[in-house]
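Give me the fold.
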Amino acid sequence: MRLKLGIAKAGIALCAVALVLTLPHARRSAALLAAQDDPAQLSELQIGSALQHDPELIERHISEALDAKDANLASSLVELAAARNIKLPEHLIARVTEAVATEQSAANIATRFATGLVTGQADDVASLSGTVAGDLLVFGDIRDVVREGKNLATGADIDRVVLGLAAAGIAATAATYVTIGGAAPVRAGLTLVKDARKVGRLSEGLAKWTGRSAREVVDAPALQRAVAGSSISRPAETLTAVKAAFRAEKAGGLMRLAKDVGRVGEKAGARGAFDTLKIAEGPKDVARAARLAESKGGQTRAFLKILGRGALLLTTGAWNFAWWIFGALMTLFGLVTSLKAGVERLTQAAIDRGKARRAKRLMAEAKRAQRAQVNPSAVASALSVS
């Protein structure tokens, strides 16, 4: 019995220690699995865990952003720190404030707007505004279609992603005017994806998907024939040619992607959209980023910078989290089983001790009765005296 009770006690101790060690992991795993379809909640859980392991994480990233002349990212990180009640050094906040003020000066904004309008490349809100303005005037898209169309006609290398996005952009521009700005997020999204492609900030997976979609929406032979004699100096002719070669019925997926990118750009800025396009592996990732941006706004870039693609979805397999939960449940089962066995052993020991005491008392009574039968005169004398 002592051996069995000792085994039960050892089982209780081992299971209790194992439960203490696995329970935090199991609770985190359960929370992450529950939040896997909610990018905002998932990001909060992920960032909380990251900060728990590295409390100086945000401060370090702010310094790196300032050194890289990225005031927008530094401001996003400061906003994230404020949301989580993390106190930052005063000198660091002053540096961020100064950098943001310099970036948002009137001269700087005007210069970036002009750069975006002329070159068609954007990396912030001001240059994106210039790029979108050029695309709304159809200048930018015609420029890209003519360039890629000429390459197609001459047999030179072409960027089908840019060609398809430019063709879709012309159609979206017409829709923007017809709906009085209702299609503006799609128009801006197409511009952002096109610019990301030009500067190499479109992920490989997203580039492949966009390339396949671009092939579907552009009738290459028709476009090759149409733009062979067109140029940017004859926009009406080019527009007619592109519209004839553009398959609007096959552009649904591309337009949905552009709309989601536009939503990210609207809430998190152009750089937030570029960060998304750099890490997203497909349209579903971009849709998740749009939900994150709508929930977190200016903090979006901070989440993307710290967590990467982990801000959008579980990068660790759900099987690993399920194992932690299963391990905690099995440990709990072992603890309950050990407690049950221990209680049973203690109860049995108590019952055995009670039986032993009763047996000892009965034996004592039996011995007294036996002595009384052996010496009856003593008993009679005792009775007479009484």
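The chain is about 80% helix and 0% strand.
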